[in-house]
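Build the 3D complex.
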Amino acid sequence: MIELLPERRSQVVRKSSDTPATDLPCGKASTAGSVSQRACVFCGSRVVLYPISDALHLVHGPIGCAAYTWDIRGSLSSGPELNRNSFSTDLQEMDVIFGGEKKLEAALLELIAHYHPKAAFVYSTCIVGLIGDDVSAICKRVGAKTGIPVLPVHSEGFKGTKKDGYRAACEAVYQLAGTGDIAGISPHSINILGEFNLAGETWILRDYYKRMGIEVVACITGDSRIEDIRRCHGAKLNLVQCSGSMTHLAKMLERDHGIPFQRVSYFGIEDMSAALYEAAKHFSDDPTIMSRAQQLVREEIAAIYPELQRYKQKLVGKKVAIYVGGAFKAFSLIRILRLLGMETAVVGSQTGDTEDYRQLQEISNPGTIIVDDSNPLELAKFCLEKDVDLFIGGVKERPIAYKLGIGFCDHNHERKEPLAGFVGMLNFAKEVYASVASPVWQFAPRRANRGKEAVRA
Amino acid sequence: MNAIPQEEEPRSKNFTSTRNACKLCTPLGACLVFRGVEGCIPFLHGSQGCSTYIRRYLISHFREPMDIASSNFHEESAIFGGSANFQQGTLNVLRQYQPQLIGVATTCLAETIGEDMPRLLQDLREKHGDRVTAPIVTVSTASYRGTHMDGFHAAVKALVEQLGRPGETTGAVNLFPGMVSAADLRLLKEILSDFGLNYTLLPDYSETMDGETWSQYEKLQSGGTPLKAIAATGSAKASIEFGRTLVAGETAGSSLLKKFNVPRHWPGLPIGIRESDAFFQLLSELSGRSMPVKYQRERGRLVDSLIDGHKYIFEKRAIVYGEEDLVIGLASFLCEIGVTPVLCASGGRSRHFEKALREAAPALPGDTLVKEGFDFAEIAELAPSLRPDFFMGSSKGYRTARELKVPLVRVGFPIHDRMGGQRVLHLGYRGAQELYDRIVNALLEVKQETSTVGYAYL
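Done.
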């Protein structure tokens, strides 16, 4: 049997219809030895800033951090692709002894001279602070010499959790906001925050807003350019999709530039439509925006509906486990799955906050397992207990599902299928259907003996 | 879509930074070794991110679970030392996984603050001795020292040093194959058995990292080198470790020689005919048996096929990259079949690469570029002027091959953009046969695809 570690028990709850929602003690560091699925502060910063495609991204540290994050994400660029490279100061033993400042400065000057980026981000990894490098001072000096913004990202891996990395990324990006010319920006304009153009999703959304008559000033950071980000303070509304990563930036823009923000989700018919309508309501001075939004939603749903029904017939009644990075995505997924007639039996996230987990408990069916910062053994235990048919997660969760004969849908940053927008809803249903309905499961031993669960220690 | 803009000069520039590294960090190699030991869970002493990144990287290649625990340093650990986290972490791992062994590898963070691992182990045993139900092996793998390959060799060495036991010399041999595929490991076991040799193959992730679908949940996938077999390495009659660059290295083999007087052999990775011949010859000597007929037949079929296909590939130009010893083996094989390696590159830096390569491949032209400490940006900058007909190496060379519109024959690690990376066979006559067919077919495909005629008969 798999037993929960005592330190972990309070981060797992079961939705009960009799008792009120409980507060999960989330947001804390992962338990040592628990084999958390989380990464680190650096990871948080790197995933948020990675899509800025005309910037130089230099990882200051030994080689691993840069090597493992080289060109793995599904974020697309319509122009430059400098971000698809992995630049590292590749610190060696002598650098650790004598400090890496000179190496960092030389590396920056050479790379900027060679690649002509519009800005540079310098990521600090674990050992940078320990060896005493003053990264901020070097960034300042190189910025002055080269005339481009050179921005330190304080992302030492051990100094907090992935969320602190998001925050460090927001701080770095915020250095650029307010520095561009905002003349000519429409009164009906938005920024999209926390949307990373995975498989071209930003382009789908930009098209929707264009059809509604709304100008997108900057998408931060999907398919973004430094120039867009410099102008983002000229937008009239911020829409925050990945709220875990970008709410901090939205709050800073609200505080200093008076731009209100709304949380949105672009996943699923309901949330996608709601996101468009909310923006239209915000710009109610032009009622044609709302009428265009309504027309758009009608057209888009009509286009996908018949095929969606075909998949739904095959998916009705199937049970699902969800384990994703941010909890906000989980809300949308639960709604999408309901629309497809599927039931969420397990739902968890790496970085949800207390409020997120409260809401998850509220919208979940009784008996649903809700978990914060889980690990492979727990996830396997929950999947077995609930006997799920599908797992929605990332690459690290995939083998857990497959080994147990469970279908899988990748909903993480590495995916190459657009899952946002109306067309994304259809793609999602198609992908889920392709996994759940495949004939291969008949050969998976657990499926062959379904119902006869046992766990070998 | 030139990700790396090309400048006018054809020579690679000397950059201070590493751009698109052709290497990974040391703990990755150690983690893979530990998953090749039966019932062993890898444990990284450092930040949470290290274990997660390495897990994802390995999972994407092997498509198998890869649980790696972490002591998950916080700011206090970095200031006051990670002993408390180490204790909590190891105890939790023992409780959750009931492993037979914990393989602890350090990270750059732990090394930089100067963690004293023997001391940490002692503290753990003093405070919680009754709960420490499995042995713990530690290896120092600072990522600012060497590459994943160094981490791999260091972990194998740590295992035999810390678990190897003296004893009366047996007829068994130790085989330390280095970082090869799961299919390679299965072949090596078959070969050793066919020679009638008892052996310790370390590591052996042929089942743990290329296993079956489960009927029951397996906390740690079954398979791997048994601890008893590692203990027996000290009483073996010989050690074989693949890798011509290990000439002066502090390795498992050299440690066993020093400590237990086990004779050490370090032939090249048996890739291609002559390197495989040398390996089979060594096994004949150690076993007192001649090469089994099965392998004579494999060799015979291989030679026959080389003749059948020789004209399709003669003087074709190849860019080969990867771990130093892998590149040496591949280049040696390419020279045997008439392909010209024009650039042999590795992110490793053993200082023996070129010398060892030229010894293994005497036919290698003098002007072939042999580069250690190289990265993919440098390969991409040199590649156009080298006019390669194909690339050979991991998936990470794909973008450059694509820009030049030449095929990439995927070998080694990682293969993140195809199925079956763990099942690619490189070693022995059988592996050479597989590599040969793939190389010839990749070039035939180019010929066919670029032809205006479209022959279905070549």
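DSSP finds 17 helices and 15 strands in chain B.
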